[in-house]
């Protein structure tokens, strides 16, 4: 019995020990995932931008060396979320160059950020950004729990914690597999049950019938399939718009064919959402919307032309620009479009359109602006930012129509937050529509048509060569001399030649100064390169003193005040001597007004003065040559620096 008791005791202890160990172990797992009793501050690198981090408030640890100018910072005190987190911390004085812990809080976007030089960091100005943040010392506030791991906007597989999913056609941002809608078992590492029941409950069976359908058939209002869709009654969108397919067919042949609205000569590509998750009803509403747009646009060879690309897993051209060249034919063709199904790979579709759609063979006219209107139900399943940038830079104006986008609770599932803002060239709302409900989509028809036809504003595609107002400020003082003045004009012409010049691209203006100043020509005077070059040639040498400060002030008032709001402003000042007046105050005024200033000095020009005039960092914006005959050597470097700077700044 004694032995038996002992053995029992031993095994009880054994069990207790096991329990204890597993208990500790499982608490560990639990606390790591959920409670974090011991808070560790996450580390980030100098280049991490606040916008990449989704958490609204967090503590981070910055490494040393974030003062480096390559980590761009925008704003002062309140920083655009496009800024380096740690760079902003140094700029604001919370951190020095040796790194450390800081506290970040996101705040609303602003309509302007002012760049200043502070604590060894030059921050830049930015007209507008969608989100800001402020930096403070890492004194955690009571009652606030800070995340010990940060959520980055590119984080994968949010559907794995899809408990809070509210919509019945939730999209997950899982990687694309073309076969996914049909063979779910090959899908990503999410339990199939979760995908079918929670993430994509409705569309799945439907997608299967679409993709395996033996013959394509129209799914219009008249379609026999409407019987099986008896849940659906035409919504207000359809009733309002008065779309009556039968009438449309009967009037088709009797009406004269329109040449199209000559006031709206654009080449248009509609990218329509054919993903499974959109469902049959919404797809039908989308088609109705297209038909309404086509009707309002008045398609024709002398007006707008339009083609359609449908995307799902992959995009496909339904018709190109010259397949149907009047509104009637196009509407009939739209009615026959069938849904492709699959994921919502918008980025892939944009890329496809950039490469394939706007070719001459597809009917692109060259002289008409290229416009792509992207329709998105909810949000894309892939990324759009980069592909949209490439599209814009190849000359395509992108509009985004987001219908029933992510609600606050759903934002965590979106692969690329603010995808629409990232895809369009400016975040001023002109290029994007946010439609609350499919049932109110019809209200977007008129505003969209109006904007798409506003060809003056379709200058979306920005490059360093086509997006600036460049003002030359030319020293005409006596010390220059007639011969050298000709060389200076050659130099001005050689720089100008590198740019794309027109009313809507780069514009050139010029001021000459001595003691006095005169406007040689303003930005709106000449709208072709030929005209600009001959105007430069005609500038007559003035001769006199050298008041460079007054000249800068004059250029701000007479040239740059008339610059267009969204244009980059570049001042290129050429001088051969020291100024008689103060340059510092006018130079600061120029910098504060967002005029990027290049100072080119020849012969007797004072280097320190050039550096004061030039935008910071001075080594990129000031140039000195010993002789006028060497001026030509700096042309390529100036162009290169202008483009490097352009490419390092956010587009908006
Ligand atoms: C301007 O370009 C011409 C032709 O390339 C070249 O011969 C000349 O030296 C250049 N002059 C200046 C000042 O850049």
Automatic annotation (TrEMBL):
Biological process annotations from GO: extracellular matrix organization; positive regulation of cell-substrate adhesion; spinal cord development
Entry keyword set: Disulfide bond, Extracellular matrix, Glycoprotein, Membrane, Neurogenesis, Repeat, Secreted, Signal, Transmembrane, Transmembrane helix
Polar residues bias: start-end ranges: 146-157
TM spans (from-to): 12-30
GO cellular component, one term: interstitial matrix
One MF term in the entry's GO annotations: glycosaminoglycan binding
Pfam families: LCCL (PF03815), VWA (PF00092)
Residue span(s) of domain VWFA: 267-452, 469-642
CDD domains in the record: vWA_collagen
Main location group: secreted
Comp. bias intervals (Basic and acidic residues): 161-171
Subcellular location: Secreted, Extracellular space, Extracellular matrix
Domain LCCL: 40-133
Cited InterPro entries: ECM_Assembly_Org, LCCL, LCCL_sf, VWF_A, vWFA_dom_sf
PROSITE patterns registered for this protein in UniProt: LCCL (PS50820), VWFA (PS50234)
Quaternary structure and interacting proteins, as annotated: Binds dermatan sulfate and chondroitin sulfate.
Biological role: Promotes matrix assembly and cell adhesiveness. Plays a role in spinal cord formation by regulating the proliferation and differentiation of neural stem cells.
Protein name: Vitrin
Gene: Vit
